[in-house]
Amino acid sequence: MKALRYRGSDLLFVVCVYSFLLLSLLVVGLPFFYVITSSFTTEHEYLSRGFFLIPREWTIEAYGYLLHNRNFLQAFENSIMITFFGTLINIVLTSLMAYGLSKSWLKGRRLLNFMVLFSMIFAGGLIPTYLVTRELGLLNSYWALFLNSAIAPFNLIVMRSFFQAIPTELEEAAKIDGSSEYRIFVQIMLPLSLPALATFTLFYAVFNWNTYFYAILFLNNSSDWPLQVFLRQMLIESDQSMEADAGMFQYTPAVKMAAVLVSSAPLLVVYPFLQKYFNKGMLLGSVKG
After folding, report:
1. Can you give the residue ranges of the ABC transmembrane type-1 domain (predicted)?
2. Domain ranges (residues) in the chain
3. What class has domain 70-220+276-287?
């Protein structure tokens, strides 16, 4: 294998690029590594040693606290439910509307496309959104989270472009065989759109898992709070106690670090398996045809 040779200017560019990547790795990786190691340390060592990367005494007590904390487990369960049903609603409505707007024969298509673009640039506002949600009787309901973020305009526009790039000959052949519009959408368009569907499913799943502002705005019962709101209560307040069946639970620094790590674990596990769909799903709609 021949060794790579660079000219002076090229070598300087390569050195700068790798230096920037190494710096970015340190900026991102060092805090994350600190969170991991701090979750396995004791409270005494955390408070006495100050900043450190490798604890002298390893313990899993922080994770034991979380596993026996009913409020944390309830919040975790709420986030899983919000993510699953919210993402399902998001991807179904987005794909249906994108498929409809991709049809040139659709009456009022230009107006609808303009309304989608307008909603992406100008939001309705916090107070009007809250008032409409209240008048619809959706306060203290997960439907307030699902419906207020049902369709992301950017995702809709990209998926519409993806459907438009699929050859119309496929639809014409299916119609000649007697297929209905619904059957064409389900059996032809959706299978051909799997890369885009996987990409936007991950986008919506990350959004729903990290939902925070709408949960604070529309959910007043702490038992309905998702994990991010619970973490906020845990992290911004000083060490506190919570009564449970096994006794009093204290949110020590190690417990807080463990909670942050556990809350990010699902996305860290799922992301590598869907990462390959990002470039494929985002680019096919613009170059295919």
Report:
1. 76-270
2. 70-220+276-287
3. mainly alpha
